[in-house]
Amino acid sequence: MENNILHGGKRAHTIKHKDYVPTVSDNFSANVVVDGSTVNFGLWDTAGQEDYNRLRTLSYRGADVFLLAFSLISKASYENIANKVRAF
Hints:
Elements: E1 2-7, E2 11-16, E3 25-34, E4 37-46, H1 53-57, H2 75-86
Antiparallel strand pairs: 1-2, 3-4
């Protein structure tokens, strides 16, 4: 499996995982200087399964941006994400 990670907004790096193990959530953080001010970018990767709906909403508090991911080759994946957006 390949994951693309955007680094510094300028280039994408590809990381290959031999054995993917799904998690309920994971988070990443980086401090970036923007116009002379340090900004903390935090990314919370949460599980998409319905079993985790209540747990997932805890990570929304204080969020300024949401990134929604879906498969470009699966119409069902797109429809699923569209339904989740309507729930807000």
